[in-house]
Fold these 2 entries.
Entry 1:
Amino acid sequence: MGLAQSPKDDLESGGIGQRPKVIAQTNHSPHVTRCRRDDERIRTKSRLGHAKTATDPCPIGVHTLSDNSRPITSLVQIPDSGDPFLQGLKCKSCGAISLKSRAACGKCGGRDTNEPLRLANKGKLHAFSIVYRAFPGITVPFVSAVADLEGGGTIKTNLIGVDPDPEKIQLGMDIDVVFQVVDRKDSEGNEYLGYFIQPAA
Amino acid sequence: MGSEDIYIAGIDMIKFGKFPDISIATLGAEAAHLALDDAGITINDVQALYSGNLMMASAMVGQQIQKEIGQTGIPVVNCANACATGATALREGWTAIKAGLYDIVLAVGVEKLAGAGMLGGGGGNKTGISPEGLLGSGAMPCVFAEAGMAHSKEYGTSFEQFAQIAVKNHHHSTMNPKARYQIETPLEEVMNAEMISYPNTKLMCSANVDGAAAAVLMSEKKVKELGLMGQAVKIRASVLTTDPWTDRDEVMPDINTCTRNAAAQAYEMAGVGPNDLDLVELHDCFATAEVLHYENLGLCADGEAGKLIDEKSTWLGGRIPVNLSGGLLSKGHPIGATGIANVYEVSTHLRGGAGKRQAEGARIGLAHVIGLGTCCGIHILEGPSN
Ligand SMILES: [Zn+2]
């Protein structure tokens, strides 16, 4: 149905139309493998007020946390031992579950009512979009998704482990939360541990 | 609060487009003059000016406009409220007359947005790395696509149904000489256009344009005194809400609850229901959003938006025509002007002056905008009785 002029042709000049080259996907293991050398452990304080640690690079597994691996957001907790997990907040007054600390509870306004809450690694896909046009430097297409976690809490992240094809993504399907070091570093070369969702195993 | 009704005594907009060589003050002044002329008054009659602009919120745009149209020394208030900026400016004027401070105020909304990127939002943290593209996308086409897909999950709304919104609004715009575009876009073309963020293709995203719109608001006493009752549009309701706490709000801006709350308040204030409406201009920043607002505004029952689309009920001539202007998709979305331009469209129909796209016999209409972050503005308007 080609038209001589299509609406919004001029938007192409917006400067965000460039598609960065697609970075080859490696076969990521769903869970981060990490080892720990206590003497070199680095301990910092997260925004949620809980200690987190990261360790030196370790040769075991596909993904390892180097001594400067950091949580991608305050939601990610990296414990001394065991797997990383997501930690939100739950208001002990009204039960609202939130993802980041606030001056008071967003639902009831209660002060000092928020307690840390470990979020589940399982949930259901609530919504998604397949993103084709992104800011420069971002690999497309990718699937942006929203998932409701078992026991409460809703997260948004990339849905991985599926083709970016609407026919192959089932709304409401069971998902698992997985952790991976992301292939993006900050200006100091620090690497970050991200969280993603994928169809339940 | 005063019991007197408040009226839109004059209102107009410039044709939306791309005006790289015209300043924002000049665009705003043009719309202001059109509205003053429509009301048959001058800047010397205006007691306060409410200016809406988002992208230059620190630039005193209201005063810049004032310097173009006459520095009479009246109070100027600059408003910024995301995509509800224009509606907020208009409502601030309404509030001041309602409080009894003034009898005549001018509200102007203006934005220069042509050539702006389509994505908006997104971006990243000031420290660490940007999570954009890792933790999903905060870009607007994606945010509103996800909102639409949540509707799909609940009710099975299809890509084709979402796309039909763009077909309709582009069709309506062919009858609106003030719209940015007047081009038919058949379904196949909409669905095959560049996919921006599934299910929103490029033709299902609002058009970034330059634009301005303005309205003269008057107390009932002043409208009668100036003999303007024959053209004055009564503001039956003016409502502004924000997003109350909802469980997914932190990762999925909730455009539904604030709209539902605003609609309930507006219907109550106006003493009408959705079945009394003859037309609606709603915030179709993306095609997916329009579908949600059919239900949010009560134009149909929950889960029946798809049916409303299939039955073409929201087309010109349908049971409840929506976005006869062409909507943000084709008329264009100059953010600060949008909320007043929507009121202009509804008012024009209520005054019987919409030409080929006229909603026949329109008496009551609703104008709705959403600003992400989040807020919702709704105005319910009633046309002159003669
Ligand atoms: Zn609470």
Entry 2:
Amino acid sequence: MQTVLQQLVNGLSLGSIYALLALGYTMVYGIIKLINFAHGDIYMLGAFWGYYVIHQWHFSFWPALLSAMVFCALAGVIIEYLAYRPLRNSPRIAALITAIGVSFLLENGMSYLFSSNVRSFPQVMDVKSYNLFGIKVSNIQVLILVVSIVLMILLQLIIRRTKMGKAMRAVSVDPDAAQLIGINIDRTISFTFALGSALAGAAGVMIGLYYNSIDPLMGMTPGIKAFVAAVLGGIGLIPGAALGGFVIGILETATQALGFSAFKDAVVYVVLIIILLVRPAGILGKNIKEKV
Amino acid sequence: MALLKVTDLSVNYGVIQAVKKVNFEVNTGEIVTLIGANGAGKTTILKTISGLLRPSGGTITYEDQEIQKYKSQKIVAAGISQVPEGRHIFPGLTVVENLQMGAFLRKDRDGIKTDFDMVFDRFPVLKERRNQDAATLSGGEQQMLAMGRALMAKPKLILLDEPSMGLAPIFINEIFDIIRVIQQQGTTVLLIEQNAAKALAIADRGYVLQTGNILMSGTGKELLANNDVQKAYLGG
Ligand SMILES: Nc1ncnc2c1ncn2[C@@H]1O[C@H](COP(=O)(O)OP(=O)(O)OP(=O)(O)O)[C@@H](O)[C@H]1O
Ligand SMILES: [Mg+2]
């Protein structure tokens, strides 16, 4: 029982990182039907930004987190503007291949500029471990979970309540109709990239703190897992991405706890294959019915 | 005075020229109709006016400004709203939310509230179903919602793309009645229809479009009485 709970705690904090990343995938997919393969690399940029501002400028945790979010939001907007916008009306495969290209560019560019060595993330706060009924919980785990949930609630409020959020929903269901009521599609897409990338930036800083190590390729595997999480929850659906992230996180820690550490990544792909076979629309997805 | 003046408008899809040097105008306060068979280019013209497509030649002048290079949001802000073919309401949003989206660019809260009342007044069925998911409305109700949404932008000129398409006769009559009311309350109407008889009956003027060219124009009455129009579009 205790091990189960222990793994649940570990799974939730890891899962919230995946959830933050999955939200970015799902929002971008929802609005321009692009699987942004460079999204995991934005998370890497966030981690590096956090590393630098803490190391060089002696930022504490919160300024590091917030500035990484702003930095990544800008990076996301610039990438969309330079790489994806010119292909807006091209076949989808062109944008997809471009996304893979952007991903390589960021990974190799960062390796070139900062070397591909793994570096240890500066510890901006003392790690404290608490023992609750035999379950070990660290302050970092609690922090990750709380920050992630707060960010998800904020995201939900932005999407439900603000004008930009409403524009995002309108563009994702019907871009032509959105334009006909005066919504600026370009600005709405930029905003979506900014939101998704900011969440990835926050995830990057937090994972640096949690695993204590970063490198230019650190975004690859989590990126793919978060993508699977988004598909699992139902691509394009915000609550689905959050749910999928937690499920993947828990699954991964459970696999490790059962002694199959070597398979922790493989399990995620198995999940992907299973959903695609039995429920391609994802857990929360509806099979789309068109009304004529 | 011409509110909208379309001059030598050409629109291409790749190598296909869907609209060929078309000329027409809409005066303030009028209902003008463009009639024509499937594929004549009617929807293409409306999309170009709304800024969803770019012309390959010609000009579109609205209130003495050339708007053919404007982005769609600027065109809406200038007072041109479109009810697109196939309605394009937002599924997953309620009736009220759909109407609110129509007022996306407006900031005058009081005015928006008045227009909500006006729309509910004109389309009582929308009021009854105000909190229902728009996707669950019937075709006729969705058409009314699409018109209501366009009116929420408080347009000076409303573009209607086949509002009677796919509707039962009783809804069709209701839609045409509403178009009249919209005109009487001061909005200029550019109406596209395949239902030529009904469209010409309420229109001040009409144009007949065939494979991207304007074939004929005249008052609604003249075109209704015209032999060629009767043969080609009125089944007689
Ligand atoms: N996206 C597109 N790509 C290529 N050709 C198109 C496209 N949309 C329309 N066309 C072509 O342009 C021509 C005009 O089409 P349009 O939709 O404007 O006709 P319409 O008069 O609105 O017809 P309908 O009454 O069927 O709605 C047609 O020949 C059509 O096949
Ligand atoms: Mg058409």
